[in-house]
Amino acid sequence: MSSRTAPRLMTLQRHLGWPQAGNMATESSPLTTHVLDTASGLPAQGLCLRLSRLEAPCQQWMELRTSYTNLDGRCPGLLTPSQIKPGTYKLFFDTESYWKERGQESFYPYVEKVSRDLRHYDTSG
């Protein structure tokens, strides 16, 4: 499924009231994010992001989830409470693809936010 199709499909399913199959947003998650498109003043809908955790002992990033921001620029349900464990986490925002789909160039090809403790994970800023 292309990065353009996935958000449209999710929006259609939401409007039709379909259950979100395979989507962890149905469970409460302590980790969410909210992305705003400051150029338009609107939420950044359809932006792809990837959540990873730094795994010991080899210190390699393990991708846990790929998702897209919803109509409100949010990405709820990234991890369920049972999936969260102490460690270093990274959110990768694919800003280049987001802008490319809108016919514009991106100054930053991607943005990464890294946190060592999810209890203090803040993706704003």
Q: Can you walk me through this structure?
A:
This protein has helices spanning 5-16, 95-100; strands at 36-37, 42-43, 48-55, 60-68, 89-93, 111-115. The chain is α+β, with helices and mostly antiparallel strands. A four-stranded antiparallel sheet has the order 4-3-5-6. A two-stranded antiparallel ribbon has the order 1-2. β1 and β2 (42-43) form a beta hairpin.
Distance between the termini: 30 Å
Helix content class: 10-25%
Provide the CATH top-level class of one domain: Mainly Beta
* Computed Rg: 15 Å
CATH architecture of one domain: Sandwich
List keywords for this structure.
125 residues, alpha+beta, Immunoglobulin-like, four-stranded antiparallel sheet, two-stranded antiparallel ribbon, 14% helix, globular, disordered C terminus, Transthyretin, secreted, hydrolase activity
SSE layout and pairing:
Elements: H1 5-16, E1 36-37, E2 42-43, E3 48-55, E4 60-68, E5 89-93, H2 95-100, E6 111-115
Antiparallel strand pairs: 1-2, 3-4, 3-5, 5-6
Subunit structure: Homotetramer.
Subcellular location: Secreted
Main location: secreted
Give a brief outline of the structure.
By secondary structure, the protein is α+β, with helices and mostly antiparallel strands. It has helices spanning about 5-15, 95-100; strands spanning about 35, 40-45, 50-55, 60-70, 90-95, 110-115. The radius of gyration is 15 Å and the shape is globular.
